[in-house]
Amino acid sequence: MKIPILDLKKQYASIKKEVNSAIKEVVTNQDFILGEEVKNLEKEVALYCNAKYAVGVASGTDALILSLKALGIKQGDEVITSPFTFVATAEAISLIGAKPVFVDIEPKTYNIDPALIEKKVTRFTKAIIPVHIYGQCADMDPIINIAKKCNLRVIEDAAQAIGATYKGRKTGSLGDCAALSFFPSKNLGGFGDGGMVTTDKEDMADAIKTLRVHGSKIRYIHSFIGMNSRLDNLQAAVLRVKLKYLEKWLNARRESAKYYDERLKDMPVVVPYTPSYNTHTYHLYVLRVQSGLDKLTQFLIDGGIEARTYYPIPLHLQECYKDLGYREGDLPESEKAAKETFSIPIFPEMELEEKDFIVNRIRSFFKK
Ligand SMILES: Cc1ncc(COP(=O)(O)O)c(C=O)c1O
Asked: What is this structure's pTM?
């Protein structure tokens, strides 16, 4: 048996008719740029995330960049974030000329540790970007309290976590704004790149709408320097079909996670931890071992199971951030997690036999 970390072909097969006809409609109308599908998707995602506004952009990375720009963050400012994330989180901060300041993670959720944030706040700090890693929310209330106290903005990096809730509140509605990604492998993935910013603030939504079209509200009148970062109408058409199934798909992920949890908890692996304030979306199902990570993942790969470590090098130790001056040992929990964690396949359409196959392979590794 061969089990990929994610099988998008199965998902496509399940919605093929509907999605093909949505694409055909856009092509028939030749309505490609900021068309009706984008407008409708923006309304539907805003509603889904319980936010007042949603603005479609070209990617999750752009959603972060445009959020930072709309909040007025600029060269010389500092933005606090987690080092245990995909590079895009910090890259967005760097690309607008600001400096990422990394704060270590909680070892159980892999999310930024709120208790460590305040001592990294300086007079240059302007914002915090908590990342909802692997599909569950960072502990937002203490983060928002620090932000209020220190007059900082909060941008949720919800690229991996659309549909997750924190104390009953949806991602996308927890900070000043949130960045969503529609990269194909995400909980809600398009047929290419795409992203969205959600916010309750009208001025922020307005600024992002202007920024995504070259800083222009009226054709050929440019109030400030923007960029070309629009969500394709074709992508929006695909995403509108998929959004209808999102809750069902998230529930299927949760069921699979429960299945794994129950069958692996007596093994020497740490199964994902979900604090009582969260509902997890299991964008990824991440296990942890104290030692032997490479041997175990290789054993799974040899058995036809795609297992992978997200993220093997925390951002503060990446070559591209060597000028920031971090050393090994500076953010120990992130460094440890990078050496001890790995993901096994999880996607809504997984068959029972596939899950059993994976569980049995892990069990047989420890029985060797
Ligand atoms: C945590 C996180 N932030 C940001 C991004 C960037 O999203 P995109 O690939 O849509 O630019 C990703 C996804 O790849 C991500 O996982």
From this structure: 0.98
Sign of the Cα torsion 335, 339, 340, 346 reads positive
For residue 131, report the distance from its CA to the centre of ligand 1, in Å. 10
**CA 181 to centroid of ligand 1, rounded, Å:** 6
Which of 198, 214, 257, 187 minimizes the C-alpha distance to 63? Answer: 198
pLDDT tens column, 258-309? 999 999 999 999 999 999 999 999 999 999 999 999 999 999 999 999 999 9
Report the nearest atom of ligand 1 relative to the CA of 183.
Answer: 10
Nearest CA to ligand 1 atom 10: 60
Q: Which of 160, 193, 229, 231 to mutate to test the pocket of ligand 1 (most atoms within 8 A of CB)?
A: 160
Nearest to 66 by CA among 239, 237, 222, 195: 195
In angstroms, the Cα distances linking 179 to 92, 150, 226 are 11, 22, 17
Helix axes 352-367, 293-302, angle to 10 degrees: 130
What residues are in contact with ligand 1 under a 6 Å CB criterion?
A: 59-61, 85-86, 88-89, 131, 157, 159-160, 181, 183, 193, 195
